[in-house]
Design brief:
Elements lengths: L1 H23 L3 H18 L10 H20 L7 H29 L4 H8 L7 H7 L5 H26 L6 H31 L6 H17 L5 H12 L15 H33 L2 H4 L2 H24 L15 H9 L11 H48 L1
Length: 409
Amino acid sequence: MTIIITLCILLLIAYLFDLTASWTKIPSVILLLLLGWIVREVTFFFDINVPDLSATLPILGTIGLILIVLEGALELELNRSKIGLIKKSVFGALLPLMVLAFSLGYVLYYYSENSFKDCLSNAIPFCVISSAIAIPSVRNLTSSQKEFTIYESSLSDIFGVIFFNFVAYNTAFGVETFGYFSLEILIIITISFIATFLLSFLLNKIDHHIKFVPIILLVILIYEISKIFHLPALIFILVFGLAIGNLDEIRHLKWTERFRLDLLNKEVAKFKELTIEATFLVRALFFMLFGYLIKTSEIINPNTILWAVGIVLAIYALRAIQLYASKIPLFPLLFVAPRGLITILLFLSINPDHTVVFVNKSLIIQVILLTAFTMMIGLMGTEKHREIIIKEKIKAKHSNEEYESEETL
């Protein structure tokens, strides 16, 4: 009973964090990590026995990743007018990922005794933008900035996971390896379209009062089975979300008449609402649990802080170059490059025998916190600057109106 009461209170507090995030400008992930850490300190102070929950973290993280990418994909509009935005998002997600991964991998290789392959797999987790943090944090930005963030962070998650799996699960990198990799991409794309068609059919045809939970469970099931065969399963999530979220774009095709798209659109809207609710729940539990598992010594570890600062500086230097090359205004998107859920999941996926000595939990925590605080301060500063400009425009407008009225008299 006590556990249920505590869990309900913590989730309600997490909901308050989410509600007030647009007003406080503080990313909810910081508050969730802090809340989890406070719970840990309270349990130690009162000598409360809590079972080991570390094994639960990867499970929550995987489900959270699926739901976050699905939620992001459902939000995106896919039409010809978005082609330019998609190109910039692909460039923004892929190029910094590759450049930072190989650069950091080389630095780790220089300072460690590990192979370059191990160093590269240890570097990749730091190179992925966290859609779990980025997407909820840009609610107050313009629609074009929000769209770019959703595309970029979702694609960064997908490219990061695919790249990590390619490096971590292959022992050699020759023509045959790249051939198998290309084949895996083709297989998962084929599976994605077939599964999307079948899931859309089920979503439209199921008359039972419970219909959305089985769809989500099937999505998770397909994702996990694809992972067993080392297929880039996040592509399926993205394809499924984009397909059912943009049904109006295929309305002109004759075979879609069987789907009764008007009715299906209503079901998709309900499915989207359920996905948003479930995403909030899983994301809140994940970051609170991660915060609970953080030790104070890991946050203030002096042995890793210089590495963390160096990585964060490299992240924002590359981001500035990327945005400039894409002809996108630097502010406020320069600050929207947080690390989070994917960084943690990929770090947990590294075989302990292949871990670089510098890459530990302390470094992960410090990089996540530094990027989250940078984003918070950057967005708050941008918001204040925008308010000043708006006030100046209003003041100038009133002055012009007064001048024109005097001229009329």
